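I have been asked to look over a protein record a colleague put together. Alongside the sequence sits a line of tokens, each denoting a local backbone shape. Please read both lines and tell me whether the tokens look consistent with the sequence. Take the sequence as given and treat only the tokens as open to question. I have pasted the whole thing underneath without changing anything:
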Amino acid sequence: MATFAKPENALKRAEELINVGQKLDALQALHDLITSKRYRAWQKTLERIMFKYVELCVDMRKGRFAKDGLIQYRIACQQVNVSSLEEVIKHFMQLSTEKAEQARSQALALEEALDVDDLEADKRPEDLMLSYVSGEKGKDRSDRELVTPWFKFLWETYRTVLEILRNNSKLEALYAMTAHRAFQFCKQYKRTTEFRRLCEIIRNHLANLNKYRDQRDRPDLSSPESLQLYLDTRFEQLKIATELELWQEAFRSIEDIHGLMCMVKKTPKPSLMVVYYAKLTEVFWISSSHLYHAYAWMKLFTLQKSFNKNLSQKDLQLIASSVVLAALAVAPHDHRRGASHLELENEKERNLRIANLIDFNLDPKPENRELLSRSSLLSELVSRGVMSCATQEVKDLYHLLEHEFLPLDLAAKVEPLLSKISKLGGKLSSASSVPEVQLSQYVPAIEQLATLRLLQQVSHVYQTMTIGRLSQMIPFFNFSMVEKISVDAVRHSFLAMKVDHMKNIILFGNLDLESDDLRDQLTNLAESLNKARFMVNPRAQKSSKLGDILPSLGEIVENEHKRLLARKSIIEKRKEEQERQLLEKEREEESRRLKLQKITEEAEQKRLAAEYEQRKNQRILREIEERELEEARALLEEAEKHSKRKGKKPILGEKVTKQTLMERALSEQLRERQEMEKKLQKLARTMDYLERAKREEEASLIEAAYQRRLVEEKLLHEREQQQDVDQSRQRHEGDLKEKRRLSRMLKNKEEFQGKVIKSREAEFDRRSEEREQRINQKIHARKLEREAQRKKIFYVMHEEERLERLREEEEARKREEAESRRREEAERQAKLDEIAEKQRQRERELEEKEKLRREALLGRSTDGLSRPSELPAGSRPEPVGVAATGTPTPGKYVLPKYRRAESSGQAPADSDRWGVGSRQGPHDSDSWSRSGPKQFSDSWSRAGPRQATGDYSGGSRSTWSSSRPRER
């Protein structure tokens, strides 16, 4: 290892070695100087040495040397002049990029030159064998040998710079710039493997930064500038990941952004959040997570509507339509039905994780968060007004699929709407952060939803249907696709159907027979039918023994019901206890398995770490021993050369060590340095004497040469001045001759000029007159046009006013007619209410009289008769027509006034309005008088007083009971 008194000497030595073509020796010399502990203090010369050093590293593609040198230079200038390190790193990256671009420009096929899966992997053995045995010659092979190494070195340069700047708070901007350039490198050359490694490197840097908080010069993430740089880096990472279609890496980048914000407890700006949610929608759509995709679209719409004031109405309408269609594209059935407990727990944890990413909750509380669902999303869209911003086609589609019941026409009405929706979309304006919206991507999912809705509605109406008929009703898919969709729906208990290919029919099951609505409906129908049966065929009265049993029967039924309920509760408790025990057992087994797996993984990690540390220590010791052995050999050889050159005895046979050799070398160097200094001092004195003597001899000669030069320059100046005067005189004489020659043509020129001017003036006057005439004609035509337009406007306004007056008069007339109809209807209703009240009063009086008469009859009967028809002939009630005006006696039926009027041949006053006279006729009273009181009493005893009153009270009720069945 060479030592230098000053850093400048090392730089000169390196330049000398470069001039003679020994670049490796020059690089080694500069490397020894940079890594030496003698030059740890920063100075300007070290910066120039570093520039030369990185140039050599780039020329020779020595990435390891460059990394070691930059690390040592960072230690030297970290606290003194950190901007110097920034300049050196920028120069290093610029040189690497230029070399890579230069190599790329030499290749005609960049894709073939970069056809390498991994830039960090060594050349495979099969590739080496193929290169030897194949005849690959020419450009393909040269490109692979020239271009790929430079791109490997450029990738290594980015990694080196990121590793050096990862914990430097003063060079955060340079760190971010390097990361962005590395991202662009991966994007430009489609390097997916390197992009994944780059994301992992940046992720580890942030993790270490958060882990070791007490490090010196550590970046402070609570600072707004630092946080913005880290955020910009993550968002650039997210954009490049989506452009490279690395969707898993894009999702991890989204998690990185959320984790960074959770670390500092701060929400980014709305402009960045728009990019965040836009990329989130792409990731969820690619992963077929339609529910999460719809939630991300809704958050994006909310941000755009709230913070983007320059957004046009058309763009907002397209975004709202995308939100609604994304929500409709979610499958309507629950995929968790029938899943195991472990799967449900994993699904719940996944939903909470995704919900935190979508809502951007920096302090999530899982116990207070509700899971994402399709129904809650649709209700939230309606409540937030998203539906009102969507296009009319999307609104109609939503109404058809979610609120209409059209089992036969649903697909026919949905198909034209989908054809219109598929044509909507396109690029948005520059004011929107979302570049493009295409509604056609939701059409396949909407078609599947329409198919499911149609099958669901058809299953409610039909029990069987032919396959051909169903295929005609669904124009979106063929029957094989419909069958596939239906199988998925049946598996998740959304439908109950079977396909019989032998009979070519479809059988719909009774999935909803046990629902509460249908069970209540059937129960109500059974009760109504039972009541109707009792009214048509009343039960015959049983003996008193049944009446004795009935009270105890209710108690027995109640006790039996309670016993069954208790047994049911016991069974349910046993089932719950058994399920709980099974769940606990599964949970214990799972925890035991996870614990065992964790212990095994920890043991494996410890073993691997111990082996790695052991190998690392062995390698370090081996390298140290090899290095010491090489240094000892070099010192020994140098000592042998010096001893041979100076005539001393070689020390080859002596038993020496590295320490003794170093001491001898240092003493020899010190002695040589002292001798060299003495020689230099002697040489300097000699050169001083010689230089002084030369200058004393040269002084007189220089003065004489100066006087001679003055005389020569004076003669030269006079000669050049005389030449200029002669040339000027000659040019003047030539100009006079040319003037005399051209003056003869002056008169002809003036005549020609006059003719041209006169002709152009005449042409100008003629065109001016024509222009004035055209202008006057246009002015006259425009006046006539304006006059006709004014007349037309006046006529249209007059006609509109006339039509408006007619419309107002018609509306006033209609309002007056409606008001008069309303008053008449109110008066008529009041009269009807009054008549009905009177009728009810008469019925109540009639019931009271009937009750009194029945009590009187029952009190007088002593022979045990139970029916009025069995009374003696002398005790039966007489017709009321003979005592219409007298006071009614107990036990007799008294007709109302209007019936007495009918029996006497007089119609009631309001018979026209009620229609009693036209429906009943005068023969009704005669038929009643012919039937006699016996028939009335029999009917009363069978149906009770209320039914008898309704049948024989007369008036509107009598007419309704007799004429209603005939009207049906």
Observations:
- Strands lie at 425-427, 436-438, 464-466, 497-500, 505-508.
- The mean pLDDT is 77.
